[in-house]
Amino acid sequence: MNVSELLRLPWTEHDETATRAGNLREQIERLTTALTETEVRLAELAATRKVIDGLTPPSHATTPAETTTATVYQRIVTTFNDHPEKVFRVHDLHEHLGLPTDEPSINITRSRLGRLVRQGLPEHPGRGRYQKRT
Questions:
Q1: What is the predicted pLDDT for the residue at 69?
Q2: Fewest C-beta atoms under 10 Å: which of 24, 54, 56, 129?
Q3: How do the domains of the chain map onto residue ranges?
Q4: Top-tier CATH class for 63-132
């Protein structure tokens, strides 16, 4: 290797390093732009969530009616599974589950039992009587 080649090596390495630095600056600029856009969108979503939370009554946020209904259905099915030979009247089922025994509540359970019978879970051996399908 002669002296002129030896002096050219730092200049070549300088040019390559300068090119790499330029590419990295471009990447940083693209990433900075993407980060800024993402942070703006995140702020918009946070504001939207705050508005929706402000419009939603607290009772819906903690215990939706659908969850309560699903729980009652599950409790009914569990009762039939726990007592497969027992025939329940709706009123007895309410007492067993600790549900209110007023007429509107009883009628809702009759409707629920009708749906469950159509789905094939309990059977309806007689008027007002329900038991686990065998």
A1: 58
A2: 54
A3: 3-58, 63-132
A4: mainly alpha
